[in-house]
Amino acid sequence: MQEAGAVTGDRPGRLSFRRIGAGTRLAFPQGTVFGEPWIELGEHCIIAEQVTLTAGMMPGLDLGPDPILTLGDGVVLGRGSHVIADTRVTIGSDTYCGPYVYITSTNHSYDDPHEPVGKQWPRTDPVSIGPGCWLGTGAVILPGARLGRNVVVAAGAVVRGEVPDHSVVAGAPARVVRRWDEAGGWQPPLRTPAPVPIPEGVTPEQLRALAELEKELPQAGARPGTVVGERGRRLEAATPGPDRAQSSKGR
User: Fold this and answer.
1) What is the DSSP letter of 196?
2) Which family does it belong to (predicted)?
3) Which of 25, 66, 103, 181 has the greatest CB tally within 10 Å of its CB?
């Protein structure tokens, strides 16, 4: 059922998106989806189960000639997330959202103290999320938010207003807790070393051997940081570089 119910460009089913790029997939079961003619999904997006995607306040409206909700290439929306676009919402390429993220361009108003809040006409304001961002579990992006490039939003943060490039925001309301620039790097400085990338050509067997090594070194009284450094050296040694590959051919 999960395979048969998934939505792709080749198998859109009942959903008639304005665009759905190659390699993009909406997992089954989908959440609430309407206003698809005004929704554009880029290539290689991952839309997890029970994700809501809506354009307009209700189904059946004519929203004009332009798209309302746009996802760039490689966007990931985690399980149970909601993207509610009553006016323009754009999510930049390679932005990853954890589960239960809520992004909305609409908020209730409460100007009239005598009228129930739910019956008052809502306010709308466009939302823009730059490329390369990471939105943690349960983050809320409110109307009018403008996130720059490579912004990290902490789990449970509530974001409104403008967030500059290469920032980390946390809290409710969210505030900038760390920033990066060319001159000073990360401020305040990062407290943990950068992860060691896995070089090309490393096999699953070698990775399992390194995992065993990480267990052994602390037991042997290795100093902090030794595991990371040793892992990098072992990975480098295990990777067939040009010189080693050439010499192995000679043998």
Assistant:
1) P
2) Belongs to the transferase hexapeptide repeat family.
3) 103
pLDDT tens digits, 78-134? 999 999 999 999 999 999 999 999 999 999 999 999 999 999 999 999 999 999 999
Q: Are residues 23 and 68 in the same domain?
A: yes
Cβ atoms 94, 73 nearer than 8 A? yes
Q: Cβ distance 155 to 137 under 8 Å? A: yes
Among residues 58, 63, 68, which one has the least CA distance to residue 89?
68
Q: Look at the block and give the residue holding tokens 């996130």.
A: 147
- CA neighbor of 66 nearest in space, from 92, 46, 88, 96: 88
Confidence bin at 224 (pLDDT 50/70/90): very low
DSSP, res 67: -
Cα(58)–Cα(8) distance, integer angstroms: 24
Residues in the chain: 251
Evaluate whether residue 244 is within a structural domain.
yes
Tell me the residue range of the domain where 178 lies. 2-187
CA 236 to chain centre: 30
